[in-house]
Description:
Elements: H1 3-14, H2 22-37, H3 44-74, E1 78-83, E2 90-92, E3 102-107, E4 114-119, E5 123-125, E6 129-135, H4 139-144, H5 149-174, E7 184-187, H6 192-203, E8 208-213, H7 214-217, H8 236-245, E9 250-251, E10 254-259, E11 277-282, E12 288-302, E13 308-322, E14 327-331
Parallel strand pairs: 1-12, 7-14, 8-10
Antiparallel strand pairs: 2-5, 3-4, 3-13, 6-13, 8-11, 9-10, 11-14, 12-13
Helix pairs in contact: 1-2, 1-3, 3-5
Amino acid sequence: MEQRMLKQLLIAAARPTADVNFTDAQSAAKNAILEHFGLEDISIRDIKKHSGAIFAIVEEVLEEVLPMELESLVGQFAEIKTFGRDESPKFTIRGVGKNRVMRGIVKGARGGLYRARRLDNKELMVPVSVWTVGYQITLEELLTGRRTIAELVELIAKGFTELIYTEVIAALRASKAYAPVANRHEANGINEVELRRIIRTVSAYGNPTIIAFQSEAEKLTNTAGNVSVMNPNVAAADLDEIRNQGRVSVYRGTPIIVLPNYFMDETNEDWLFDEADIFVLPVGEKPVKVAFQGEMYTTEVAQPHGGVEYHAHRMMGIGIMFYNHIGIYTDAVEEGS
């Protein structure tokens, strides 16, 4: 089987569509690898012999599929671009002239802290560094069918998505220090008048979108009029959404995106992110920039218990472009909880 055909089968297995049978796609991908490398007997020696070549093809598939997976997860507010190893990871920004002073929040060289930089031209340079996602799906498991290509892609995509969210939130919070007073507010609970003021300010730069954690998103409601004279004062569609997902998906015409949060350890007590901030971003010019550079490569890492973990490495950087673009509402009740 030609390598081009093998790659196409792996891509189909990595992102199965509605018109493709999931089981058939996974089986076809596994059998194609076995046929291409002559591994019908699946001996350990043969697997070790061909592991480098097999992972090289898998890496090519991941490079093609991963941006599409991430686009579906963060594409509403983030622009994702892949650059060659010899290319400069830079994004061309529209409207710099009319906005006079444009800033970008990017990671600094010292200590890795996110800092603001003035953009004197139409390009935002995004510094990149190596990011790693570890997974424990072995090549033997893929070749025997115990695990699938789709599972592998899902694990790596989720890993990189978590890294992206971590960096995006760090960069958004860094922008707090630079955002104008009109773009931010802090209060105990949700002051709807102030939140709507921030949304209106951001709407001058594009269609605003609310980005918040679940605990804050649940507090946003579309009550209408005076409760004493309007019963019910919440639309039936909102009540259905609250029943089905615990929150509304649109707040007074502004879509809501819920950020994921993660536990720090197995005690399920400490969350990775403080959930106090509600971010309001325009989606005309996507303010978050995600840069991938070069190729992905996979390494085998021996574990102390005798097992093996595989690490997927990729050069990646995050930046945020803004000129009075970002709005931040901080719920002091939730802060530090």
